[in-house]
Amino acid sequence: MTCILAKSKDRGKDKKKSKSQHIDYHEMEEVIDVNKLTSQLERAIEIMKDDFAKYLSIRSTVGAIEELSVKFEGKDYTLQELAQISRKPKLIVLNISTFPQAIPDILKSLTKNQMNLNPQQDGTTVYVPIPKVTKEHRESLSKNAKSFYTKCCSNIRDIRNKQIKTVKNKEGLAKDIIFRMENYIDILSNQYVSKAEQLLETKQKELLGDFD
């Protein structure tokens, strides 16, 4: 996998960057709020981890569905707040008699996620067949993992670009300092891309492991 952060305009800097891939945090902290930047990058990784945990289970568990987010009357709820959830062999049953008006929103959340669900409504009851763990299903989950990774990298790139723009807009900074700050931000951002790549590789190995 290639790092997505490199830009064509940085070609001339690549050679210099390759000679110095360390960060002088003392110098960096004089110009940038490093703790804030690191927290933003960590958050991008945590969002990716959360997406993996919620949507990329080999078997669609009751727990994953219970925590599914449903937007109802302008507010966010978990599914378990709106429905009574039980499990039968190869089937999850949702009793939504308490909040029948939420059924359209619940169906929307069940169908528009990464768990490959196909809910069937019968009055105020919704039946959710648990997808078979086929090779194709595993491959589909692996592709979804890649999409979450791509989203994470996009978030990291946005954080990087905003921070570099902030540095360039600071008054009184010499060009060589701006160059070094941009270099440090690139290095730090790429470290988090590497973390995301490692998470993706681990998840894909888990999803595409020995098929039974």
From TrEMBL:
BP GO annotations: translation
GO CC terms, sorted: mitochondrion
Keywords, alphabetical: Protein biosynthesis
Pfam family, one: RRF
One MF term in the entry's GO annotations: ribosomal large subunit binding
Domain of life of the organism encoding this protein: Eukaryota
Residue ranges of domain Ribosome recycling factor in the record: 49-208
Family matches, as PANTHER family: MITOCHONDRIAL RIBOSOME RECYCLING FACTOR PSEUDO 1 (PTHR20982:SF3), RIBOSOME RECYCLING FACTOR (PTHR20982)
Family recorded in the similarity comment: Belongs to the RRF family.
Protein name: Ribosome-recycling factor, mitochondrial
